[in-house]
Amino acid sequence: MLKRTWVSIVFGIMLLFGVFCSLSVNAQDQNTIVKGKVLSERLDTSFVNSDFINQKLEVEILEGPDSDQIVTINASVRNADSDYKYGEGDSIYLIKGINGDYFFGDRNRLPRIWLIFALFFVVVVALAGKRGLGSIFGLGSSILIIAFYIIPMIIAGNDPFFVSLQGIVVAALVSFYFAHGFNRRTTIALIGTMITLVIAGLLAWFFTRFLFLTGNYSEDTVYLQRGVLENLDLRGLFLGGVMLGTLGVLDDITTAQVAAVEQIKKANYNLKFTELFKRSYSIGKEHIAGLVNTLAFAYIGSSFALILLFSFNNSNPWWYILNSEFIATEIVQSLVGSIALVLAVPITTFLACKIYESLSKEQLAKGSSHEVHTHVH
User: Fold this and answer.
1) Is 89 domain-assigned?
2) Is 113 part of any domain?
3) Residue 231: half-sphere exposure toward Cβ, Cα within 13 Å
4) Where is the domain boundary, 74, 108, 142?
5) Has residue 355 got a pLDDT over 70?
6) Distance of CA 263 to the CA centre of its chain
7) Cβ-Cβ contacts under 8 Å for 116 (sequence gap 6 or more)
8) Quick one: 98 and 136 in the same domain?
9) C-alpha 169 chain-centroid distance
10) CB-based burial label for 76 (10 Å; 0-12, 13-18, 19+)
11) Share of the chain above pLDDT 90, in %
12) Strands, DSSP E only, in the chain?
């Protein structure tokens, strides 16, 4: 078991390394963006705006064909963010225009982003050991599947919903076994997750038609349908997003339920199916109560700014705002995910109880009693 875990981890490292190399190669075909170092700054008085602090920056180009050259660019920050003014020594990105001039791009945040990732990595591995490391690579593999399969296939004109379903199945297979190991417990949880996802997909498909949702509910979707993506199926894209969001929380609840069934059965091998299901399901109901709130607030939090914007629109009554496609879409996302969570508990508990009840004491003893439930969203 330990050998297979480390094989998975090594494979994950190789996979992530290959993707980073691929990203580096693809970056050559993109806009000319180079790093620069601010040598000095002064206020720009040629453009007056009471809401912004305008600066002229002397910047040394650190890479590319114009490396070591010094250019002067304009940058600005809001008065409310005056603490974020650009100063000597700051690292920034410059964009080279068609005529060869350089313009301000953005502050260089990548070194600090990597520090946050490193903190995340250290905390997870320190507290969860090799299971935590497997979870990180499982998460990484899921992101890669989204970035290098789902998104390119959608851009190529394929149906977003079915492409997302295909990617989700592969992502679930890889991430589950990376995170939880190759064992009976993981397989049962994976089967329960797949069954629940099918039901969630059918519910989401029905609700979008029942509420006449088009998927065109934000500025993002409007921009997506410009140019080469003008024929993009926005309803299918929305459904795919719902399925991806649901998968993340199902991983947690299904693996926890199978673990609960296994431990209860080990504690009292003589328990029959009915009693085993009853005791395990009581644990699952407590899990449901917390996760339903978690999912709802996750969706609300991701759209908090837009919800706040709607609240200032006093020209329309609250019930009309609630009726809008944007709000209705958020409601469908939250409710489909919540229904899936609720259904996942009895479905997974039933499967686990049936399987563990049929095992002999010797088979049960060979299970994954040494494993710790670990999940990284």
Assistant:
1) yes
2) no
3) 7
4) 108
5) yes
6) 30
7) none
8) no
9) 16
10) middle
11) 27
12) 33-43, 52-61, 70-78, 91-96, 102-107
Reported as a single tens digit per residue, the pLDDT across 100-143 is 889 999 999 999 999 999 999 999 889 888 778 888 888 888 88
Q: How many structural domains compose the chain?
A: 2
Could you tell me which residue, 296 or 171, shows the higher pLDDT?
171
Contacts of 70 (CB under 8 A, 6+ apart): 39, 58, 59, 60, 61
**Residue 82 domain boundaries:** 33-108
Helix (H, G, I), strand (E, B) or coil at 170: helix
Q: Which residues pair with 71 in a beta bridge?
A: 59
For 64-91, write each residue's pLDDT tens digit: 889 999 999 988 888 877 788 898 999 9
The whole-number pLDDT of residue 250 equals: 85
Pick from 12-16, 40-44, 207-211, 285-289: least confident: 12-16
Q: Are residues 290 and 141 in the same domain?
A: yes
* 187 inside domain: yes
Indicate if 87 and 157 belong to the same structural domain: no
Q: Which of 108, 136, 170 is the last residue of a domain?
A: 108
Q: For residue 374, is it within any domain? A: no
* CATH of residue 55: 2.40.50
CA-to-CA separations, 358 to 26, 269, 288, 353, 354, in angstroms, rounded: 52, 11, 27, 9, 7
